[in-house]
Amino acid sequence: MMHPRCLSALAFVALMAGRASAADDPKKPEKAGPVKNLTETTHTITVHGAKIEYKATAGTLPLMDDNGKTIANVFFIAYTQPGHKASDRPITFAFNGGPGSSSVWLHLGVLGPRRIGAADVGDRPVPPYRLVDNESTLLDVSDLVFIDPVSTGYSRPASGQNAKQFHGVQEDIHSVGAFIDAYTTRFRRWDSPKFLAGESYGTTRAAGLADYMQDHFGMYFNGIILISAVLNFQTLSQGPGNDLPYLLYLPSFAATAWYHKKLSKDFHGDLATLLDEAEHFATNEYSVALFKGDRLSASERKNIAQKLSHFTGLPEDFIRRANLRVSMGEFNTRLLRDRDLVIGRYDSRYTGRAISPLNMRQNYDPSYTAVQGEFTALFNEYVKRDLKYETKEHYEILTSKVQPWNFGAARGGYLNVATDLRDAMMKNPQLHVFVANGHFDLATPFFATQYTFDHMNLGEKLRKHVTMGFYEAGHMMYLHPPSRQKLHKDLSDFIHKAVAG
Q: What pLDDT, in 10s, does the model give residues 131-159?
């Protein structure tokens, strides 16, 4: 998950161009010390009728500089099945995004053996919340290691160390990469098929890690799992001089208007038909219109405004006054204004009462507040009660303490780690990529992700190593039960395929 404040202001407005240089970054972790505060517990779970016995390991790995001085302690929770040879058992390293997010969302949302018991849209649970066995856990096909980057979760800089040395694009890749290398060595998993799984900014991290781990540690992965991906931030940064996001958000706006029954009365098709039409319009007429800019004639402008109104459910006059460029914030606050509602950014199926009905900026995201309390309460109880892990540290679910985030050489333009992923795939042509997209995700819209992969210049053979999955939900598509079940099947199939080569 992306931080609701950080990325609305930071990643969508003032992000970067090109690639950050490692030469601009502070010292990199070189090695790790012994695991601290280690706890191990055993558990069982039944998945699709099969009983699975597993071990849960929680602890912190100290990261050291080249002088052997501890610079950070990284917290992790691992789930492994005993009795398997390392070479027969895949292992997946998982994390969320932010920047500033712990791994709790993927952990208790979809991948781990236990998950929150939340219902989907329209049925918010009342505390106390409940944790349930996760029938969609990926533990049936892969061991799992959930990583909290420095300053998130229980991970902290060592005493006397400046936290800023971990808060940046490359700094983050270096520290998480050092952890993965240390874990793989300590727990003897070099012979295992290896995967990375990231969500949101975690996909940015995963793309950078794939290339970094190959070049610096000689660690090659079988697969990369990208959930609600953002690799090229130009696709998201709506503003003067960058028309691209207005095109790429349109299908998600259309899906949202369809869900809330705000489409023009002359549309009677299903969602798939609508998305095909919206993508075709965005790729053709709409892109040409925005390219023309002020050269667009009055009749052309009126025609485009009418069609945008057809796809978005917004008034034609409002679209004309917005110069045919409606931002995500404007859409979220304007679509259901007649009901005094705002819609969710992470998942546009969610709505909440507008605190300031005439405001064109959202005061909060109802799709985030709907789940924040449940994830927070259940993790804090679970880690102590079930995993027996005790610490005086506060678990940072989602923190702004990592700000300002260092974008290095990319500062001032748009970060694009799609080039890192492309390089990793070209150096390791056995690498497979799975991308999960939610139709109702307004944080990382699916059409922007498709655009990014369409412009990676992978070549015909490597393009076949990229698999796209689409779900009738939002950024955290796994909160929607049918999507969670579909995601589990898709990921299981992907891991089997990537291991087979």
A: 999 999 999 999 999 999 999 999 999 99
Burial of 22 (0-12, 13-18, 19+ CB in 10 A): middle
pLDDT at residue 198 tops 60: yes
User: Is-contact 205 97, C-beta < 8 A?
Assistant: yes
What does the alpha-carbon distance between residue 91 and residue 95 come to, in Å, rounded to a whole number? Answer: 13
Domain boundaries, the chain: 6-19+28-234+371-500
Give the Cα separation of 219 and 191 in Å (integer).
Answer: 10
Q: How far apart are the first and last CA of the chain?
A: 30
* pLDDT exceeds 70 at position 2: no
How far is residue 229 from each of residues 233, 420, 449, measured CA to CA in Å?
Answer: 10, 14, 6
Tell me the one-letter amino acid at 16. M
Assign 228 to helix, strand or coil.
Answer: strand
The pTM score is 0.94
User: Any alpha helices (H) in 73-221, and if so which ranges?
Assistant: 104-106, 169-186, 201-217
Run of H or E residues at 342: strand 341-343
**Angle formed at CA 321 by CA 317 and CA 327, multiple of 5 degrees:** 105
| Contacting residues for 323 by C-beta, under 8 A, at least 6 apart | none
> If one looks up domain 6-19+28-234+371-500 in CATH, what number appears?
3.40.50.1820
Q: What is the DSSP string of 287-331?
A: HHHHHHGGG--HHHHHHHHHHHHHHH---HHHHHHTTT---HHHH
Q: How many CB atoms lie within 10 A of CB 148?
A: 27
